[in-house]
Design goal:
The protein has 279 residues and is of the alpha+beta class. The protein has two domains: 96 residues, no CATH class; 146 residues, 2-Layer Sandwich (Nucleotidyltransferase, domain 5), CATH 3.30.420. It has ten helices and nine strands. The strands form two sheets. It has a seven-stranded mixed β-sheet, with helices on both faces. Strands 1-2 form a two-stranded antiparallel ribbon. Helix 6 crosses helix 7. The radius of gyration is 31 Å and the shape is elongated. The C terminus is likely disordered.
């Protein structure tokens, strides 16, 4: 293996060569293969500009690379790999989202908060600058929470937005038995970390008001986050999800005999008998 050893002559303050071995015990990398070595693999500013221009006109990435390869004399002479070009385009697309829709949403919500001091918006970013989680609430919702926020439904089953992000809704019932919304949120993913961030911000925005009961759809990550943020709060499952689970996993004939009132009456009798009680 080729080797060059040097040392510093401190007396004369110059570098000197101690040992030189010019012989190689293997063939040198061919010029056309140098771009495969990570240290030498990079996209030039000219290549990036070329890709940006053609991609801006709607040219597919595969055709862009094919065209650039013909100019360079082959894919091996591009100076970078196909994967790096696709990663670069994906990174640019993500940055446009950061500066586009998500930035517009943040500016809009912060503008609302500037007009209404009771309105609040919270968000955080990923390591590469993408919008991770967002939570927002208006003044009326914050007031309602103080009156009707003892029991809160914590739901995130909706993914109807363009980016397929889980939409979190905090809701309950008011004194007129009408649904009241306490806040909304968009989470990056359905993980304990995302839900914990959402619940922590809900608690801060709502002046750390203690919850008596949190109702969820039974998602493990939601339950774990709830126990972490509100350890003294009771957890309950949503009746709608229970009914859906029972009807989808049970035989239809089992439910045809009962009306809702009849089912509830049988349920109560079953609970009473199991506890050794009578009506």
């Amino acid at each position: 293996m080729a080797k060059l050893s040097i040392y510093l002559d401190r007396e004369n303050s110059i570098w000197k060569v101690r040992k030189v071995i010019l012989e190689h015990n293997h063939e040198l990398t061919l010029r056309v293969m140098v771009n495969m070595i990570p240290k030498f693999r990079q996209m030039s500013d000219a290549a990036k500009a070329h890709i940006d221009d053609m991609h801006g006109y709607g040219v597919p990435t595969s055709k862009i690379l094919g065209y650039m390869a013909r100019i360079a004399g082959g894919y091996s002479l591009l100076g970078f790999m196909k994967k790096e070009a696709y990663n670069y385009i994906d990174k640019m697309r993500r940055s446009k989202i950061v500066d586009g829709d998500s930035n517009a949403a943040v500016v809009y919500l912060e503008g609302k908060a500037a007009v209404n001091p009771m309105a609040m918006a919270r968000y955080n970013l990923t390591e590469d600058g993408m919008l991770a989680n967002m939570f927002w609430v208006d003044g009326i919702s914050r007031v309602d929470y103080q009156y009707f926020g003892d029991i809160v439904a914590f739901d995130s089953i909706y993914k109807k937005n363009e980016y397929n992000r889980p939409l979190v809704i905090f809701s309950s019932s008011n004194n007129h038995k009408k649904t009241t919304i306490f806040g909304f949120g968009l989470v990056l993913n359905e993980t304990i970390a995302s839900y914990t961030w959402m619940l922590e911000n809900l608690s801060k925005v709502m002046c750390n008001k203690a919850l008596s009961v949190v109702v969820t759809n039974g998602d493990d990550a939601m339950i774990a986050a709830m126990k972490k943020v509100f350890p003294k709060t009771t957890h309950r499952l949503c009746a709608w999800h229970l009914q859906k689970n029972v009807t989808s996993n049970g035989r239809e004939q089992c439910f045809m005999r009962y009306s809702l009132s009849g089912y509830m009456r049988t349920w109560r009798l079953t609970n009473l008998s199991s506890n050794g009680l009578s009506c």
